[in-house]
TrEMBL record:
It comes from the Eukaryota. Keywords: Coiled coil, Endoplasmic reticulum, Membrane, Transmembrane, Transmembrane helix. Belongs to the DPM3 family. This is Dolichol-phosphate mannosyltransferase subunit 3. It is a multi-pass membrane protein. GO terms for cellular component: dolichol-phosphate-mannose synthase complex; endoplasmic reticulum membrane. GO terms for biological process: GPI anchor biosynthetic process. Residues 64-91 form a coiled coil. Stabilizer subunit of the dolichol-phosphate mannose (DPM) synthase complex; tethers catalytic subunit to the ER. The chain crosses the membrane at residues 7-25, 37-59.
Length: 97
């Protein structure tokens, strides 16, 4: 079973329970007492998931590390590639800054 199938089956089960709670004719006291909460629970779950996703992205951006050695090595490789291309006859435009 792939991850997609696992997620879809789990969401299908949760959706079926949600629909059952909304449309059931049983006189369950919990459902009657908290009908509005059950009705808006998918919206609440999406909002909570959005907050979680936002916090994960912000945390990972905050902890993103700089690789100064890699940046220097990349700059050296760019200079080397430009020299190689210049020796083959390629002409570079000067950057107007």
């Amino acid at each position: 079973m792939t991850k997609l199938q696992e997620w879809l089956s789990g969401l299908g089960i949760i959706f079926a329970i949600w629909i059952y709670l909304l449309t059931s004719k049983s006189l369950n006291e919990f459902v009657q007492k908290h009908y509005d909460l059950i009705l808006y629970s998918p919206v609440i779950c999406v909002f909570i998931f959005g907050l979680y996703a936002l916090s994960v992205v912000l945390y990972r951006v905050y902890n993103f590390n700089d690789c100064k050695e890699a940046a220097q090595q990349l700059s050296e490789e760019i200079v080397e590639a430009k020299e190689n291309l210049a020796s083959l006859g390629f002409k570079f435009k000067e950057n107007a800054k």
